[in-house]
């Protein structure tokens, strides 16, 4: 599931495969702005059935935290 989430995020951000890792911090990815963040949360739910409450999604700082909220860690 972790790999599917990372691929989905890379697809939404339109970045090359391997750009996003478990150690990626959101602020370090230029394309990962607030609009992209909302799109990612929506796509996670729509495509993978991963639901992250909006109040928690807003506070995410990096991939480890996102994966944890998605139930991958």
From TrEMBL:
Domain called Carrier: residue spans: 1-73
Q: Using the record, list the residue span of the signal peptide; answer none if the entry has no such feature.
A: none
Stored InterPro entries: ACP-like_sf (IPR036736), PP-bd_ACP (IPR009081)
Q: What protein name applies here?
A: Acyl carrier protein
Organism of origin is Waltera acetigignens
